[in-house]
Amino acid sequence: MNQVQDHRLRSPAAQHDPLWISDQPDLGFHGGMMGSAKVPGWTALNSTPHMYMELHEGDNWQIAQAMNFATQHNLKLLIKNTGHDWFGRSMSRGFMLWTHNIQGSQWHDAFRPANCGHSEPAVSFAAGVQFWQVFQEMKEHKRLVVTGTCATVGHVGFTLGGGYGDYSHFYGSGASNLLEAEVILPSGQQVTASECNEYSDLFKALRGGGPGFGLVTKFTYRTYPEPAVSGMIMGTVSGDMVHNLAEFFAWYKALNEQKKVKHIGGILQLQPGHVIFVNLRFVNLPAEDCQALLQQSSFFNGLTCQQAAVFNDFSDYKSSENGSKGLQPDWLKSMAADLANGVTENQGGDAVLFSLNYALGGTENALRDFEKTSVNPQALATVKFDWMIGRDSPHVVSHGTQVDTTTLKAFEAAKHDVDEVLGGVGGYLNEGDISEENWQEHYWGSNYPFLLEVKKKYDPNNLLTCFQCVGAETIQC
Ligand SMILES: Cc1cc2nc3c(=O)[nH]c(=O)nc-3n(C[C@H](O)[C@H](O)[C@H](O)COP(=O)(O)OP(=O)(O)OC[C@H]3O[C@@H](n4cnc5c(N)ncnc54)[C@H](O)[C@@H]3O)c2cc1C
Question: What are the percentages of helix, strand and coil residues in the chain, rounded to 5?
Fold first, then answer.
């Protein structure tokens, strides 16, 4: 067991090494999160665990012992991989199990999930694997796995929270592509769960039901052949932001009606000074056909569809060892500089991020197994609308920080407008809304009563509990 140490977020390593924060057991990716009118922000003050245990491959016995110890001593147990959770779910007060060093992968030509009759190409990733490792392996194996956009996110947290990436409209979510899970339950029992065995209820809960059902040591996912063609639409759009956004949404709505949205995903980031940073991806669509789609809207004036591989090279992207500087590709440096500029310009480090990846439209394949996940069944017709907060914000968030109610009202009105245009309902836990009071309905809809039953069955003592997680309404987080 280890005691937590003080870290300086402003150290050069923290600023220049994209993996540094993920490599620290006691740091979260977001150093603070703005509170809402009702919920206080979380900070170093209320977000640092007291003790942590570093886990490695094969430490199943130690994990079971830690579960028993925490239960006996009535400790709040936390599970952390990278600390990317937006609301600090892996970083509150308590006794932490750090899964970052549970490493390993195995590629299968024909994987048969426990007790199932069918088999298909798949890959198993141990709990600590991050997307930069997945990207690198996808390139080597020429197979696609559904991932999120950012290289530093961990696959387990991603999938537990639904898991939508730039290609989800075509291939589905992390949750819908999950085939099997190895889990250590709060009771200490080690189980393998699939849709075909006696743990099928647990398996469904792990497919988007959020954290809090057990410690996942391994997830196995379906894989796909490398897409024939893919690329990006990247650049900035300046000018009247209200007008430009209206243009964009009209275009995206039309795209949905034309059943072309399956080819396009990604994010729009609204930055200070009426600047919209466009970071979209297209897949299984020739660049010239993609360009023809952009020509349907004046929003994209000057932006082009550029062919690029789905699989980027991350071979020089090695995990740093507790603060030592890792290697990083040049694009990461420029992204960090952009982020820093945005933060400085905006004083508060806030920007609004629209993510388009949340299962709007999609292909038959993307929808395959969707109903077997536990995310909100209405998610099929939703677009995401997010806050993004720069971690280096000069505004230090305190335990009592509240969003000013004028901003909150404007935000709520904007969310409503977007939903009106795009017919969206619901949301998902990973990129959720800290101010959402009806989060049970918002994230899980009609699946919530089922999830609550599964929670009671596998974690009756609420050993694993977190903010806006299943069962959290009965507990003070
Ligand atoms: C820069 C950035 C980009 C992102 N991009 C996307 C995106 O494209 N798509 C998307 O869907 N989401 C995205 N997210 C959200 C992200 O998927 C979630 O925050 C996710 O929960 C992160 O998982 P993690 O394991 O990396 O983080 P952690 O903070 O370590 O864990 C997140 C949650 O999962 C639990 N958990 C982690 N590992 C385990 C385990 N082995 N067993 C049981 N519980 C576990 C933790 O207890 C915690 O509650 C992004 C977040 C950031 C910060």
Answer: 30, 20, 50
What is the predicted pLDDT for the residue at 474? 73
Per the listing, tokens 């209820």 go with 201
Q: Does 244 sit in the ligand 1 pocket, CB within 6 Å?
A: no
**Is the CB of 147 within 6 Å of ligand 1?**
no
User: Could you give all domains of the chain from N- to C-terminal order, each with its CATH number?
Assistant: 1-226+310-477 (3.30.465.10)
Give the pLDDT confidence score for residue 201 in this predicted structure: 98
User: What spacing in Å lies between the alpha carbon of 257 and ligand 1's midpoint?
Assistant: 32
Q: Ligand 1 centroid to 241 CA: how many Å? A: 31
Separation of CA 437 and ligand 1 centre (Å)? 21
Q: What pLDDT digit, counting tens, does each position of 392-418 carry?
A: 343 444 555 555 566 566 666 666 666
Q: CB of 177 within 8 A of CB of 349? A: no
Q: Is there a contact between 134 and 174 (Cβ–Cβ < 8 Å)?
A: no
Phi, psi (degrees; rounded to nearest 5) at 432: -80, -165
Q: Which of 408, 417, 354 minimizes the C-alpha distance to 383?
A: 354
Q: Is 150 in the pocket of ligand 1 (CB under 6 A)?
A: yes
Residues of the chain above pLDDT 70, percent: 72
